[in-house]
Amino acid sequence: MAGDAEPGAFDIVAHYNSLIEKDASISAPIAAVGSLVKLIEKQHATTMLEFMMITRSACDRLKSATNNSISLSAGCDVFLKQMSRLSHAQSVEECRKGLIKAGTEFVQGAGKCRDSVAEFGSPFVRDEQTILIHSYSRVIMGLLGRAVKQNKRFRVYITESRPDQSGLRAAAELQKLGIPCEVILDAAVGYIMEKVDMVLVGAEGVVESGGLINKIGTYQLAIIAKAAKKPLYALAESYKFVRLYPLSQYDLPTYRSDLLSFKDRSTAEVDWQAELPRNNPVLDYTPPEFITLMFTDLGVMTPSGVSDELIKFYLD
Amino acid sequence: MPPFASGAGQRKLPKPSGSTVGIAVHPRIKEVGLRMATMDISGSNARTVAVMLAFIDVIADYTTPPHTTLVYHLTGYLSPQINFLVHQRPMCIGMANAIRWLKSEIIHTSHDLKEDEAKSQLISKIDGYIKERITAAGDIIADAGAQKIQDGDVVLTFGASSAVQNLLITARKNGRRFHVIVIDSRPEHEGRGLVRRLSKGGNTTGLSDGVTYASLTALSLLMRDASKVFLGAEAFFANGNMLSRAGTAMVALSAHSCHVPVIVTCETYKFNERIQLDAVVNNELGVPDALIDMSSEAMAQDRLNKVCPLNDWRANQRLRLLNLTQDVTPPEFVSVIITEVGLIPTTSIPVVLREYKNQI
């Protein structure tokens, strides 16, 4: 590939990482687009072909350099699609300018996305409801915060969400907002489901089937919610729509065959506790039939509505 | 009265319409029509391509009569040609879509063009349609579908779909190692051809991990071993129902009940705005004699005077043979459709139809 970075050239991966470090609330696709805008500002390609090749290889470098490739690739895909639309422009310079403008607007608009998800979703929260949420998700925090401001009284169960225990962080934030909350064991989801009125989950990525990819545990939560006939609402900003169509848990780009495979341990002393996070997946795939509705910044839609939006975006 | 009980199970052919009289059918159309009637050209893609290529020759040989223009006259000139084709064998949906597209292209041809220019413009458009919607689409589908095959997969397929065959060969070329189960059924036994083509070429292009060939009756047993099901489609309707070779619905149902993903390949030119709820309202009737067992074993028994009771079915007024060639699979049995515009769920067919309509 012609994409190997020359010494002294702009390092997109480093820029991406610094964006993520600087601002804890920025999500991966936004940081990816931000870094790509920076990249095309700094490079001086003279032909359209060179321009497109440099951008494409930067996307590939980003995807391979981070462990969060699904969410990130959503941003890269949007950027590349925009580039191929603008590539019919008169000159490289015009295309570059158009792309910088579109990319900057995208990054600036990202904050608003989360607000409009909260706006569309908050009417679903009603007084005296018990809500179950999984893990920590910024967009869920936004929605619940908005519901509190509307003086709604509700309780929240939060899964501990092993192995990073991100549920504890969510509990601390909700407590500050004055929402009654309790943290439950991941294994207690089935136990608590009968007491719950609705389930809210975030998403790393929303895929073309209308399903979603999220923190491990979402799938089993969704199965239990469906069995208990409780509504499960997924919250996602539209920049998390990815062009993927998983057919099973093992059909994801993050799949590694060594995860949870049986290894020869007959002789060695095994530290099972230390093995756990190393040997386990961090994401799972929830198929569309388990999702009642999606709250997005484009509105409240059924899972199949997501695939319609993706086709509309990528077909024209 | 059960459906089809009134007809004798015979294929009903449309009467050649009056407009056929006096207008000669172009020899290329005759050739293609007869080859379709004898099943020499039988697949949906093969038929559509053959017909469109024939229309290129028809248009090239066409001259507008005096006192009229190409835009007004050509569609009328093509109608008897199309009638002849339908008379040979009912059109498949992809072909009907392609012909409808051609007619609308003719109508929208500019009146200002000279005849030669209009003709060459139409010919290049037909050529583009074949390349973009069928040939290139098939290549994209094969590549995208091959990505879905992983090492160690057991792929089950039914009958013989050219798209599935290309996909399997592409996956093999990409170095994937997987096993194929070909499920086949009477009366056409199309799967045998697929098995032959897949095992040809040894270790390089053939599937060295092996092919299992079995009859539809063994389906429920073999489905437990399958990890993915790949099927070809003749058409998709706007409500997500799939029209395909008879037997496909059974395979999809079985896969669904065993929780095996069903992956269907279909070019978007085969998407239809119509809605069909079952396979009874519209179906193509095959030749009833195909249902009679013509295997050598059966013939040997005939010689021993254990005559097959179906042999002289025509003499029995109360006996009817029904050879339906298509069935309809409900959308909940299809996990994904692989098209040239990407992988889509059955619920998104109306969106694709709408987007293509907007482009015209």
From TrEMBL, chain A:
<dbReference type="GO" id="GO:0005851">
    <property type="term" value="C:eukaryotic translation initiation factor 2B complex"/>
</dbReference>
<dbReference type="InterPro" id="IPR000649">
    <property type="entry name" value="IF-2B-related"/>
</dbReference>
<dbReference type="InterPro" id="IPR042528">
    <property type="entry name" value="elF-2B_alpha_N"/>
</dbReference>
<keyword id="KW-0648">Protein biosynthesis</keyword>
<dbReference type="Pfam" id="PF01008">
    <property type="entry name" value="IF-2B"/>
</dbReference>
<dbReference type="GO" id="GO:0005085">
    <property type="term" value="F:guanyl-nucleotide exchange factor activity"/>
</dbReference>
<dbReference type="InterPro" id="IPR051501">
    <property type="entry name" value="eIF2B_alpha/beta/delta"/>
</dbReference>
<comment type="similarity">
    <text>Belongs to the eIF-2B alpha/beta/delta subunits family.</text>
</comment>
<dbReference type="GO" id="GO:0003743">
    <property type="term" value="F:translation initiation factor activity"/>
</dbReference>
<dbReference type="InterPro" id="IPR037171">
    <property type="entry name" value="NagB/RpiA_transferase-like"/>
</dbReference>
<keyword id="KW-0963">Cytoplasm</keyword>
<dbReference type="GO" id="GO:0005829">
    <property type="term" value="C:cytosol"/>
</dbReference>
<dbReference type="InterPro" id="IPR042529">
    <property type="entry name" value="IF_2B-like_C"/>
</dbReference>
<keyword id="KW-0396">Initiation factor</keyword>
<dbReference type="GO" id="GO:0016740">
    <property type="term" value="F:transferase activity"/>
</dbReference>
<comment type="subunit">
    <text>Component of the translation initiation factor 2B (eIF2B) complex which is a heterodecamer of two sets of five different subunits: alpha, beta, gamma, delta and epsilon. Subunits alpha, beta and delta comprise a regulatory subcomplex and subunits epsilon and gamma comprise a catalytic subcomplex. Within the complex, the hexameric regulatory complex resides at the center, with the two heterodimeric catalytic subcomplexes bound on opposite sides.</text>
</comment>
<keyword id="KW-0808">Transferase</keyword>
<protein>
    <recommendedName>
        <fullName>Translation initiation factor eIF2B subunit alpha</fullName>
    </recommendedName>
</protein>
From TrEMBL, chain B:
<feature type="region of interest" description="Disordered">
    <location>
        <begin position="1"/>
        <end position="20"/>
    </location>
</feature>
<protein>
    <recommendedName>
        <fullName>Translation initiation factor eIF2B subunit delta</fullName>
    </recommendedName>
</protein>
<dbReference type="InterPro" id="IPR037171">
    <property type="entry name" value="NagB/RpiA_transferase-like"/>
</dbReference>
<dbReference type="Pfam" id="PF01008">
    <property type="entry name" value="IF-2B"/>
</dbReference>
<keyword id="KW-0963">Cytoplasm</keyword>
<dbReference type="GO" id="GO:0005829">
    <property type="term" value="C:cytosol"/>
</dbReference>
<dbReference type="InterPro" id="IPR042529">
    <property type="entry name" value="IF_2B-like_C"/>
</dbReference>
<keyword id="KW-0396">Initiation factor</keyword>
<keyword id="KW-0648">Protein biosynthesis</keyword>
<comment type="similarity">
    <text>Belongs to the eIF-2B alpha/beta/delta subunits family.</text>
</comment>
<comment type="subunit">
    <text>Component of the translation initiation factor 2B (eIF2B) complex which is a heterodecamer of two sets of five different subunits: alpha, beta, gamma, delta and epsilon. Subunits alpha, beta and delta comprise a regulatory subcomplex and subunits epsilon and gamma comprise a catalytic subcomplex. Within the complex, the hexameric regulatory complex resides at the center, with the two heterodimeric catalytic subcomplexes bound on opposite sides.</text>
</comment>
<dbReference type="InterPro" id="IPR000649">
    <property type="entry name" value="IF-2B-related"/>
</dbReference>
<dbReference type="GO" id="GO:0003743">
    <property type="term" value="F:translation initiation factor activity"/>
</dbReference>
